[in-house]
Design goal:
Blueprint lengths: L4 E2 L3 E4 L7 E6 L13 E2 L3 H8 L24 E8 L11 E6 L7 H10 L7 E5 L4 E5 L2 H4 L7 H8 L19 H22 L10 E7 L1 H9 L4 H24 L4 E8 L36 H27 L3 H4 L1 H12 L1
Parallel strand pairs: 2-5, 2-10, 4-6, 5-10, 7-9
Antiparallel strand pairs: 1-9, 3-10, 7-8
Helix pairs in contact: 4-5, 5-6, 5-7, 6-7
């Protein structure tokens, strides 16, 4: 499960301006993103999301694009949208954009686990969603808020024929309502619309004290590119529609959380390696120690290592010295003078 939503802190990031990229679409003033061309690695995006939400990470992120913010101010939610099949989107109203290098598959499971462990009593919303793969995972308040969200392709296509469908408002142009690939793309647009509508209906989610995390993975453009080609009118029309929808989606979510949200969209032409995902609860198994490694290897160094090593080392040295000193003194002790027991016994013998 790879699309993640969590309720109370929102971060919105958007990718895609010149090649694979990460574009910050919306961000509050206290989350300081610097404009520049500093590349960010795909495997570091979960750490970047965690830092923007005020969480700690295992390894320092030495990236100048994000500056440290106020200790007691955090955004209320994080929304991450991954768009596959396109390396650029026309998103002019953005905070900053950065090149994306090493576009390996990633997920926000580690961030979701942190949110749940720190705010378990507040039942934060965690939503992971990938419509094209019918993959959904919800946690906490998301079960009640998004229970009516269409998930399977059959449900979403049925939703497209109902009142309030995006088909009535979108300029389809060359896109067809009958083609499978076109309907897949339109169904993902419908999911974005329905998520915003559900959040507007449950505005109380933006006022609680637990952070919200949303993660969406959209692959409709990838299917259109495979079927029609990147130079086709269908692909160009779909790209323009998605850019417009994401721009509005970011603005709506940002406003619903009181301008305290960060919105991300990652656009990637293709991932360098396939990511095998299993539909599971993020609480059922621990996150692997090094999610960036395809071989599931542990990190060579943990930031607790130096502390634990010094505690164990000096405690062992102190105990060893104590044993040596005690043993030396016992070996050289004169029972008649150094022991009060023998001393009193000797005096009693002399008195007798």
């Amino acid at each position: 499960s790879n699309a993640v939503f969590t309720s109370s802190f929102i971060l919105i990031f958007v990718t895609g301006v010149h090649g694979d990229s990460l574009t910050v679409l919306q961000s509050p003033e206290f989350v300081s993103f610097q404009k520049g061309d500093w590349p960010v690695s795909g495997e570091k995006i979960p750490d970047l999301v965690a830092l923007t939400m005020g969480f700690s990470v295992q390894e320092d992120l030495s990236w100048p694009g994000l500056q440290a913010g106020p200790l007691f101010q955090r955004p209320r939610a994080n929304v991450l949208v991954v768009v596959r099949g396109v390396d650029s989107l026309a998103l002019p109203q953005s905070v900053a954009s950065y090149p994306l290098e090493n576009p390996v598959p990633f997920n926000l499971d580690s961030v979701a686990e942190t949110v749940h462990s720190l705010f378990a009593e507040d039942t934060p919303v965690v939503l992971q969603l990938a419509p094209s793969e019918e993959r959904l995972y919800m946690l906490g308040k998301a079960n009640a808020v998004f229970e009516d969200l269409p998930v399977t392709l059959q449900q979403i296509r049925a939703r497209l024929s109902q009142d309030g469908s995006v088909l009535a408002s979108l300029p389809l142009n060359s896109l067809s309502r009958n083609a499978e690939a076109d309907l897949l793309f339109l169904s993902e647009v419908q999911v974005l619309h329905d998520i915003t509508a559900l959040l507007q209906r449950h505005r109380h989610l933006a006022k609680d004290h637990s952070p919200d995390l949303y993660s969406l993975e959209l692959s409709g453009l990838e299917e259109l590119s495979r079927l029609y080609g990147q130079d086709s009118p269908q692909y160009r029309d779909a790209t323009a529609i998605l850019a417009s929808v994401l721009q509005k989606f970011g603005e709506d979510v940002y406003g619903l959380y009181g301008n305290s949200a960060v919105v991300e969209v990652v656009t990637v032409k293709t991932f360098e390696a396939p990511l095998t995902r299993k539909s599971r609860s993020i609480l059922e198994s621990k996150q692997i120690s090094n999610p960036g490694s395809p071989y599931n290897l542990a990190y060579k160094y943990n930031f607790h290592y130096a502390v634990v090593f010094n505690i164990v080392l000096w405690l062992m040295i102190a105990l060893a010295l104590a044993v040596i000193v005690v043993g030396y003194n016992l070996w050289n002790m004169d029972p008649g003078y150094d022991s009060i027991i023998y001393r009193m016994t000797n005096q009693k013998i002399r008195m007798d």
